[in-house]
Amino acid sequence: MLRGFLMLAAFFGFTGVALGAFAAHGLKSRLTAEYLAIFHTGVTYQLVHTLALLGVALLASQMPGRLITWAGASFAIGILLFSGSLYLLTMTGISKLGIITPFGGLAFLVGWFCLGLAAWRLS
């Protein structure tokens, strides 16, 4: 899992920085202030959870287990659903995409819960 989570962290980190720069320079004049803020929220959550995914990758090499794997998978799914839905919402204007966002938030919560439970179980 170490390699997989590191690859995901690298991908999400790269795309998070690229999307943030794209929003700051390419979308500033094309999106309303509200949509730009929504896009920025997606980038922020993506980058924060990319760091969490990086931490999970390092933990997976030291204390492998299902909870660590679930945490990493949940963070990755959360990035795709939460941030991805916000990016699509702002780029397409389809407000119904907003119903996907809470599922990404729930995935983030599951990831943090699994990480906390794994820590609790340490001897």
Helix content: over 70%
Largest sheet: none
Estimate the global geometry from the Cα principal axes.
elongated
Overall mean pLDDT: 94
Strand residues, percent: under 5%
How many helices? The count is 4
Q: Return the structural class.
A: mainly alpha
- N-to-C series of helices and strands: HHHH
Low-confidence spans:
none
Total number of distinct structural domains? 1
Terminal CA distance reads 22 Å
- Number of DSSP E strands: 0
Backbone CA Rg: 15 Å
Protein name: DUF423 domain-containing protein
Main location: membrane
Organism: Pseudomonas silesiensis
Keywords: Membrane, Transmembrane, Transmembrane helix
Could you explain the architecture of this structure?
- This protein has one domain.
- The mean pLDDT is 94.
- Helix 1 packs antiparallel against helix 2 and helix 3 packs antiparallel against helix 4.
- With 123 residues, it is mainly alpha-helical.
- It has four helices and no strands.
- 84% of the residues lie in helices and 0% in strands.
Keywords:
mainly alpha; 4 helices
At a glance:
This protein is mostly helical and 123 residues long.
Topology diagram in text:
Elements: H1 2-27, H2 33-62, H3 66-92, H4 101-120
Helix pairs in contact: 1-2, 2-3, 3-4
